Amino acid sequence: MAVYTEVTDDDVAAFLQEYDLGEVVSMKGIAEGVENSNFLLSTTTGTYILTLYEKRVKRDDLPFFLGLMDHLAARGIRCPTPIHGRDGEALRELCGRPAAIVTFLQGMWPKRIDVHHCRKLGRAIAQMHAAGRDFPLTRTNDLSVQGWRPLLDACGARADEIESGLSNELQTELEGLEQAWPAQLPEGVIHADLFPDNVFFHQGELSGFIDFYFACNDQLAYDLAVCLNAWCFETNSEFNATKARALLQAYQEVRPFSEAELQALPILAQGAAMRFLLTRLFDWLNHPEGAYVAPKDPREYLRKLRFHRAVRGPGAYGLT
Amino acid sequence: MAVYTEVTDDDVAAFLQEYDLGEVVSMKGIAEGVENSNFLLSTTTGTYILTLYEKRVKRDDLPFFLGLMDHLAARGIRCPTPIHGRDGEALRELCGRPAAIVTFLQGMWPKRIDVHHCRKLGRAIAQMHAAGRDFPLTRTNDLSVQGWRPLLDACGARADEIESGLSNELQTELEGLEQAWPAQLPEGVIHADLFPDNVFFHQGELSGFIDFYFACNDQLAYDLAVCLNAWCFETNSEFNATKARALLQAYQEVRPFSEAELQALPILAQGAAMRFLLTRLFDWLNHPEGAYVAPKDPREYLRKLRFHRAVRGPGAYGLT
């Protein structure tokens, strides 16, 4: 639940003077998102999302994120589209924070995932990857393989507070990933955080992606590796290969994987599990007492990591 | 910030089958309100508020609250209006909680109070009191004078954790209030919680009241006593008699106070300060570690209580 910065009625009225969006009708803080302050803003011209970027988002990255949403929207990918002010700028300041207004996206994220969600998702990711091909800005994925050791070091032996022996297990796992991490796979702009709560559906169709604040340049197949973890495990921790196949095959109908990508899927999925395990572990060990947002249990991703480690090839994901 | 119950896309789609509101377009949890789970619900017919009533609201009280909103709205008082389902019922169940959909009210609550807010407020309260006169249901104010001693006893000597000697001071104060509490003042349906965040303004006009979940039958002037505390102190704790006069005079243009009401204003204001001091004190001493909602500082209302105790007559509130 996230509204970290209080914005008064006077603040928002003054802010809207910079836009051609009419007058404010109502504004309500949204209890979703953990990184930024988000408000649903109704004006005399429509409904928008106002975001104030809090400290976990780097100000220098914002032109990449906002520019990407502009770029994708112009190519027919449904996502929040930044509203530009009268001076042409989409990125401004409000209450001492970088701030932007984006369009409101119809739909809700699916709380119970079924195969058809995975199929629509796979296809839409491939379309997004294609649309991002000529995006001129670049941003390194600082939460890819080279970013994991600093995170693990920061947790140190305290990983054993979660489970005895975990610190050693993760050290071994990370060394394996660092050595075996694939190079030379097709790269491009990826979303890098395609959890179900960032994908909206409306009337059975995927109505758009939100929350591009981890987007970066990286191996395209890594976006799918994140989704194998986030969409294809059941709540009892069992892996659902039918969902995985639907996801990957739908993607391949738009952009077929190379043989190298297919063979790399298990290690990419291990890496994606490691990335979310490490950030959750760090947040679990370091969350302040009384924080608004309850940290997510890192063990969920430990189980997923172990699953992918035991996988021997893309057949485990329903591909032959 | 409050969304205590997770409602899935499937849950809300099924729930909407009971209404003539069209299909769901989006639903977002609102980070406001501390008692219930509130969602901004967009459908193909408009925008609504969906509320799930959590444990602090008694189920048996809901027909009073929802009926009152219906009654007031039918008499031109702007407030959320319950939407009735196809079977005529406004109160239903969702995710194991009592739930209702109400209309969406335009406007925002004022974060910086000025005199014109107080003037509009006074007039609108008087209109609400008049409109409530023939409401047939009744509900006791269980947070009026007879409800304060159990709260104080529940805090006990721990009040001294806030300030040395506070426990004794509140005992003395409460005895005084119990002895001097006025009877025979004009009664009716009051809102009983008219803090600024429950009063919306739009384009300079009061656009409605929300959050009727403390509404009850009590002395009408007590609603004004709550507002003297919630609207007429500056952030530096100084009392602004100009705001108080604007509030009370605008009320009196619709319904003049009797002489007994005028003379009772200081003790009613003391009582209202005691009521919010005690609930805040109780919450302060009893909030669970890591709770989502930070408890409000009870000392703010201790200062207000002491101010009203020193008042000798309605002149302190700008009335002559």
Automatic annotation (TrEMBL), chains A, B:
Where do the Aminoglycoside phosphotransferase domain residues begin and end?
27-257
Q: Which UniProt keywords apply?
A: Amino-acid biosynthesis, ATP-binding, Kinase, Nucleotide-binding, Threonine biosynthesis, Transferase
The record's comment on protein family reads: Belongs to the pseudomonas-type ThrB family.
Molecular-function annotations in GO: ATP binding; homoserine kinase activity
- PANTHER family of this UniProt entry? AMINOGLYCOSIDE PHOSPHOTRANSFERASE DOMAIN-CONTAINING PROTEIN, AMINOGLYCOSIDE PHOSPHOTRANSFERASE DOMAIN-CONTAINING PROTEIN-RELATED
Q: In which pathway does it act?
A: Amino-acid biosynthesis; L-threonine biosynthesis; L-threonine from L-aspartate: step 4/5
Could you identify this protein by its name? Answer: Homoserine kinase
Q: Name one GO biological process term.
A: threonine biosynthetic process
Q: Which reaction does it catalyse?
A: L-homoserine + ATP = O-phospho-L-homoserine + ADP + H(+)
Q: Which organism is it from?
A: Rhodovibrio salinarum
Give its E.C. classification number: 2.7.1.39
